[in-house]
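Cast an eye over this sequence plus C-alpha cells and explain the fold to me:
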Amino acid sequence: MDVSTAVAKRISTRGFLPDALPLDEVKAWLTAAQRAPSGGNTQPWRVIVVTGEEKDKVIGIAQAKLAQSPGGEPTDRPIYPPNLWEPHEARRRRVGEMLYEALGIPREDRAGRMRWFANNFRFFGAPLAVFIVIDERMGHGQWGHTGMYLQTLCLLAEERGWGTCMQECWGILRPTLKEHFGLGPTEMIWCGVAVGKPDPDEKANTLYAERAPLGEIAEFRGF
C-alpha cells in the first residue's frame, strides 16, 4: 500500500473484530513508527500498550470513575478550547451528526447517543490500546512532533490492515490514568489509540468524515 492510499483510506475505526494482535507484530509496528519526524531528534513520545486483562483493568477504572463523575476530572489541557470558534465548531458538530446518522440514532435520543459514546471508554471493542505519554514540560513543538508520531502509527497500521481510532477522550481521566500507570511526576497521558482489525459490519465504520475544500485552508503566493 502506498502512502497516498493509506492516507485516503484511514478513518476513525469504531468497531473491531476480537482477533488478537500478536506481540511480535505489535513490536514490529512500533519499531517502524520510530522513524516518525522529530525536531532535534528529541523523540518526546512514550507509549504504554495494553491488551487482555490489562486493557480490561483500564476499562473498569474508566467505568467506575465516570459513574462517579460523568464529566471526568479537571484538567488544564481540555480536548477543545473553550468557546471553540468558527469554522472549527461547525466542523466538529457536523462530524458528530454524520456519525449518529450512520448509526441511526436521532438527535432527540440523547440517552441513546450517550450510551453509544460510552463505547469510547471500551476502546470500541478493540483488542489493543496504545496510550501516548508526553512530559508536561515539553513545548508546543514537541507536542507537534508527538502528533507526527501518532499519525505515523496510524498510517503504518493501515498498511497492515489494522484500524485505529485516536481517542483524545481519555484526556478527561488523566489524573487517574497517571496514577494507574505509575507515570513520572511530570508525565501525562495525551490520548489513547484503539487498534485492531476493523469490523466490516459495524455501521460506525461507514463514516468517512468530510474535509474542508482546499480553497478554505490554502493560500498560494508567488506562483
Summary: Helices lie at 3-9, 23-33, 52-68, 88-103, 110-117, 140-159, 174-181, 214-217. The first strand starts at residue 45 and ends at 51. The chain has one domain: 3-80+123-204. The beta strands are 45-51, 128-135, 163-167, 187-196.
